[in-house]
Amino acid sequence: MVFWSEFAILYIAALIGAVAVVPYGLRMAAGKPLKFSKPVLYALALAQNAVIFGVAIWLGLLASHSIGLGAPYIEALLAEATFPSATGLIAGLVFGAIAGAVLLIADLFFLPHWPQALRDMALKTTVTDNILASLYGGIDEELLMRMFGFSVLAWLLLFVWHSTTAVFWIANVIMTILFGLGHLPALKGVLGTISQLMLVRSLLLNAPVGLLCGWLFWTYGIEAAILAHFSADIIYHAFGTVILRKKLHATIAA
What we know:
- This protein has 254 residues and is mainly α.
- Helix 1 crosses helix 7.
- Helices cover 83% and strands 0% of the residues.
């Protein structure tokens, strides 16, 4: 019973994130002809993600529970058990915010080398768009990459390698690489062709968050990973949008 209640909570959260990212996508497509109306696009996003995350969360919960991982805060709430220490949640928020700030500072060094298409993209979205998109990054990407990907991969690796710590680090590194590569199709859609510098930038900016969230997941639970990813995105995408735009406008004015 707790399993399915846990599934329902995570599933609803994933669907909220899937809908929240649509305004960001629509803003990015501004000026381009849309094949469907906005209500239809929202419905399509909901339907597509309903299937993907239904399967991913179900398998992720099965795999994570079998290797001692999961969503301890949600599980304690549902089972009316002793609530875990808030250390994990605080660690997620603090480490995520620090990671977001580090990534923002790092991207300022790449800023003079941004292609025009990337500059145009940064000037399109609003702070509200980026805050809503951060829900998708924090919730949906963590459920997909950590709850599902990390757990299933670690579960499989433990059949051949019985060192849990080693397996968790291997799974973490592999999923971090996949996490970085997963951002390339969207970047390619913006730039058309991805230069070596932009490839390095994308992987470099995503790797720290991926490694951090993987470690938080196996140490404190998926809730800590979600909070870390969300807070990193808020600092980098929402707050960072304001800073990067000022820098871009200054560059244009010069």
